[in-house]
Amino acid sequence: METKVFQRIYTQLTGITKATVSLRAQGVANEELAMVHGRLAQVVKIMGDIITLQVFSGTEGIPTNAEVVFFGEPPMLKVGDDLAGRFFDAYGHPMFGDSEIEGEPREIGGPSVNPLRRKQPSELIATGIAGIDLNNTLVTGQKIPFFADPDQPFNQVMAMVALRAQADKIILGGMGLSNDDFLFFKNVFENAGALDRIISFVNTTEQPPVERLLVPDMALTAAEYFAVEKKEKVLVLLTDMTLYADALSIVSNRMDQIPSKDSMPGSLYSDLAKIYEKAVQFPDGGSITIIAVTTLSGGDITHAIPDNTGYITEGQLFLRTDSDTGKVIVDPFRSLSRLKQLVIGKKTREDHPQVMNAAVRLYADAASAKTKLENGFDLTEYDERALKFAHDYSEKLLAIDINIEVDAMLNTAWQLLAKYFSKTEVAIKSELVEKYWPAN
Amino acid sequence: MKTQGKVTGIISNLVVVEVDGPVAQNEICYINLAGTKLMAEVIKVIGKLAYVQVFESTRGLRVGTPVEFQGHMLEVTLGPGLLSKNYDGLQHDLAKMKGIFLQRGDYTDALDFDSEWDFTPLVEPGTQVIAADWLGEVPENWVKHKIMVPFTFTDKYTVKSIVPAGKYKVSDTIAVLVDTKGEEFKVTMYQKWPVKKAIIAYKEKPRPSKILETGVRVIDTLNPIAEGGTGFIPGPFGCGKTVLQHALAKQANADMIIMAACGERANEVVEIFAEFPHLDDPRTGRKLMERTTIICNTSNMPVAAREASVYTAMTIGEYYRSMGLKVLLLADSTSRWAQALREMSNRLEELPGPDAFPMDLSAVIANFYARAGFVHLNNGSNGSVTFIGTVSPAGGNLKEPVTESTKKAARCFYALSQQRADSKRYPAIDPMDSYSKYLEYPEIQEFLNKNISENWVELVMKVKNTIQQGREASEQINILGDDGVPLDYHDRYWKAEIIDFVILQQDAFDVIDCNTPLARQRYMLEKVMQICNTNFHFDGFEQCSSYYKRMINTLKQMNYSEFQSEEFYNYEKELDTILNERRVQ
Q1: Shortest CA distance from A282: residue in chain B
Q2: How far is CA B578 from CA B18, B550, B571, in A?
Q3: How many structural domains compose chain A?
Q4: Which of A273, B38, B100, B565 has a 20 to 30 Å separation from B231 between CA atoms?
C-alpha cells in the first residue's frame, strides 16, 4: 500500500511474541491495519496507550526498533468486475506479478444480512452425484462442508461439484492449500474453460499460517459484491477450514486466552459462524452458496472443529471408502443436507423423499446384516438380499463417480428396490408404489 | 445528570471505560463512535474503570471515545403490538431496519407508536389496584391484550380516572392512579421492564397439573410436558432438534409462541419467516404467525446480544402470562447462550470452570429455567410459560457442563439419539433415556387418566416396559444370533419395533402424520398395545419378521390416513385380517 500523508510512524516496540508485537501509540482504532517492519499487521487489543498488533506473517526477525506505520483503516479488498479470472494472495494482491485491480475498496468482514431481508432458499443445485442429489440435495444459499480424512479426494469432488453447479461465479478460498492442490484447481478450472468466472484467494502451505485468517473474509467480500450488486449466483469454495481454525488457535494462544475444548479458542463457534453465515439467498436472485472442506483426524467428528462446524452449517457431506465396492462414496448415514426438504419432492419428482428414505433404511438393514456376518452369525434370506442391495446401491448410486440426472437416480433406486425387496418390505406410501414400481 | 465516561481499552467486544460518576452492574451505556451509538452493558467495575460488553462490532473504536451511561439495566418495551413481530436479541424490530445489511447502531422501536388500538376499560374509577392488575384491554390479533398496572409499581393504588372506550396510541395516557401517599401516576399502554429480573406480579406458582398437548406422539404419550413446565432437548447435530422445535411451534396447544433463535442458523429463522405467515393454526384457523413472536439473534449477529436474547424472550413470555395466557417459549439453542457467557468470561480473564465455562453457569441456567411456570394471577385467572430449550452438546457428549447444568434445572429430558437419527427413525427422541418427571406427579397422573382414558398412565408404563423388553431381546439376538435365541425373543423384539415404527416415529413432513391429537394418540396406542398383548404362532423367526413387517406397513398407512376416514378403516380391516392369520386363540 502506498504511503499517505497522515500516517503515523513509531519506532519503539515494547513487546514481541511469536505472532504479536506491542507498542505505545495514540489515536489508534480497533482492527485497523499497520505495517510492522514491512509486514502487514492488525490491531487486536488496545489497553490505554499500549497497542497489540497481530503480525500476519509472523514476527521472526522483527527488532524492537522496527518501523510501525498505521494505515487508519481496517483490511480492505478492491472489488470490481476486474476480479474475475484472477488469482490473489491472502491480502487481496494479485499473484504472478499481475497488475493491481481497479475497483472500489470494501472493508472485509463487514456486517451480516438482516435475517428478515433473506429469502428462503429454494433453488436446487444439481451436481450429478447421486450421493448428493438424491440423498443430500444442495440448495442455493446453503452452507455445507465436506467432512473427510486428509487422504480422501475432497478437493477433486469439490472442483467437480463447482464446475457442474452452473454458478455465475466460483470463488476459491484456499487456506493452507498444498501447492500441488492449488495447481490442480488451477488446471481443472483452466481446462474446463471456466477461468473467467473463477476468482481465487490462496494461502498455500508455503506461506505463514496466520495469513489464512484473511482468506475467507476476502473471498466472501468478493462474493457479496457479485451477489448483491450483480445479482449473481456465487459459489464459494473454502478449503481447508480445519487449517483456518488451527490458525485461530495459534493467535488466541499468543494472546494468552484460556483455551476451551481441544485447545481451540472459546470463540470458535462465533468465529466460524461469522464466515458460514455469509451464505445467503437474496430476494432479487443473487445468492452465496458455501461449500467447504473440514478435514478430520481419523473420522473423529467430536473434535471441536467439525463439531462446531456441524452446528453451524446446513448439514455435512461425509466421504468414505466403501470396502464392499472399493469406491469413494458419500456416506448416507452421516451425511445430511438440512435444506433438502425445501426442494425434494417439490423441485424434483414427488417420490423423491420416500424413495430416498426407504433406500437409506434398507441400506441400514444391510449394515446390521454385515455386523451379524462379522460376528459369525448365519444370515437370513432377507439379510442376504439386503447385502446384495447395499452393494448395488453403493456402486450405482452412492459412488462419487456417478454423473446422472435426478430422475435417473430415482428410477435406478426403484429398480434396485424392486429387484431385491417386496412392496411391503419397502414400506413406501402405496399410491407412490402403484405409480413407480417397475413393471418387470 | 448521567454518568459520562471515556474509552481506555478495547479487546474485541470488551471495552474498558473510565467513568466520572456512579455506575451500576448491568447498567446500559452508549459509546458514541463518530455519531453512531453503540449499545453496551456493564459487566465488571474496578475503581473508576467499568468493563462493558458491546452489543456490536467494535471495529474502528479508539481510546478517548465518549460514553454515556443510562442509569438503567437492559430493558424491553412491553405493550400491544408485540405479536407477529420479528426482533433482534435486544428487541429492535428487524422489519424497521434499513438496507439489506444490519448496520451498527440502527436501533429501531419495539412497538409501533403511531398505530391506534381499540381500548376497552375493565375497571371503574375508585377501584383498588396493584401491579399487573388489568386496567383495560385491546384486541391484538385474536388475543385480548390486557393493559396492566406497570410491574414496577410496588405500592397499592386507587384508579383516579380511566379513559372511555375508544382508539388510543400506545403512548397515550389511559389511566391515572393514586398511591397511598396521594401521589398521582399516569399510566400508558406500554411499560418497560429489565430483562434479567423475573416478573413476579402474580399470586402464587403452584405445581403444574395439566399437560401441554404438542401433537408429537413420543412426547405426549411417553413423556408429556406440563403446562408451565420445563424441558430440554439435547442432541448432537443432525439429529433433528430444529425440526422437532419447529413441529412444537406449529402444533403446541398454546395461545402464544415465542421462538428465541439464539445463535443458530439464519436460514432456519427464514424458514419460520417464510412458512408461518401461510400455515394455519389448527386450533383457531388463523395464521400461525399471528400467535408468534420471534426473537432472532442468529450465530453471525453480535455475541453479547445473543446472551440478552433469551432474557428478552422470557420477559415477553412473562408479560403475556400476566394476561392469563398459555405461552410456549422455545429457545434454540441454550448452548450458544452459554458459549456467549464463556466468551465474555474469557475476555474478563476470570478463572475458568469446566470446559472454560464460567463457574456460575449452573446457577445462571437454573435461575433462567425457574422463570417458567404455571401461575395463579391476582384476579383468579391462570397463565403459564412453558419453556423448552435445546442444548447442543459438544461432540454429542451429554457429560458436558451445559447439558449437566440443564439436567439439574429442567423437568423433562428429551434425549436425541445419534443411532436413531442415523437409521432415520425420526423424531430421534430415545424413548428410554428420555424422561418426564411430570409423569410421576399425582396431579398430572390424575389429569391424564381423567382426560385421555382411565389407566392411561399404567398403559404408558406398559409401553415403556415393552420397549425395554424389545431392547433386551435385540441385544440377545445380536450376541447369540438369530438362531441362538428362542423364537419368543424375536416376537418380543418385533413387538417393540411396532411401537417404534407406529408410535415413536412420526413423519414431520407429512401433512397428516405430523400432528396427532390426543384422541388419535390414544386410539393408536391402544391398537398397538392390543397387538403387543396378542400371542401369535410362528414356525420360524423369518416368518416372524416378515409377518410383523406387514403389520407395521399397514399401521403406518393408517398413520398417513385421515383419522377415522374410510381409508383409515380400510387399513384397519386389512390389519385385522393379518392379525387373524396367526393369532393364537
Answers
A1: B100
A2: 80, 8, 11
A3: 3
A4: A273
When pLDDT is cut at 50, 70 and 90, the band that residue A424 belongs to is: confident
Interval B527-563: pLDDT, tens: 999 999 999 999 988 899 999 999 999 999 999 999 9
Task: Identify the residue among A20, A252, A260 best suited for mutation to test binding to B, counting B beta carbons within 10 A and taking the highest.
Answer: A260
Pair (B276, B357) in one structural domain: yes
Same domain, B417 and B478: no
Whether B509 and A341 lie within 8 Å, measured CB to CB: yes
**How many structural domains does chain B have?**
4
| B399 in A contact zone (CB under 8 Å) | no
Residues A111 and A172 in one domain: yes
Pick from A70, A86, A101: which residue ends a domain? A70
Contact call for residues B17 and B29 (beta carbons, < 8 A): yes
Report how far apart the first and last C-alpha atoms of chain A are (Å, whole number): 71
CATH number of the CATH domain containing B59:
2.40.30.20
> Helices (H), strands (E): how many in chain A?
12, 21
Whether B240 and B189 map to the same domain: the answer is no
ipTM over 0.95: no
| Shortest Cα–Cα distance, A174 to chain B (Å) | 22
What residues make up the domain containing A42?
Answer: 8-70
Interface of A with B in 143-172 (CB under 8 A): none
- Flag if B549 and A270 touch (Cβ within 8 Å): no
**Rounded to whole angstroms, how far apart are CA atoms B273 and B266?**
10
Do B273 and A116 count as a contact with CB atoms less than 8 A apart?
A: yes
Residues A258 and A407 in one domain: no
Q: Note whether A373 contacts B: Cβ–Cβ < 8 A.
A: no
Could you tell me which residues come within 8 angstroms of residue A144 by beta carbon, excluding any fewer than 6 positions away? A138, A290, A291, A292, A313, A314, A315, A316, A317, A337
Question: Which string of DSSP letters, residue by residue, matches B249-267?
Answer: HHH---SEEEEEEES--HH
Do A212 and A161 share a domain, yes or no?
A: yes
Is A424 close to B61, i.e. CB distance below 8 A? no
Map residue B443 onto helix, strand or coil.
helix
- b (16+ CB within 10 A) / e for A15-29: ebeebbbbbebeebb
Residues B309-337 have pLDDT tens digits of: 999 999 999 999 999 999 999 998 899 99
How far is it, in rounded angstroms, from Cα B406 to Cα B297?
A: 21
**CA-based torsion, B340, B343, B349, B351: positive or negative:** positive
The three state secondary structure string of B530-562 is HHHCCCECCCCHHHHHHHHHHHHHHHHHHHHCC
Same domain, A210 and A225: yes
Interface check for B392 against chain A (CB to CB < 8 A): the answer is yes
Nearest one of B323, B355, B330 to B341, comparing CA atoms: B355
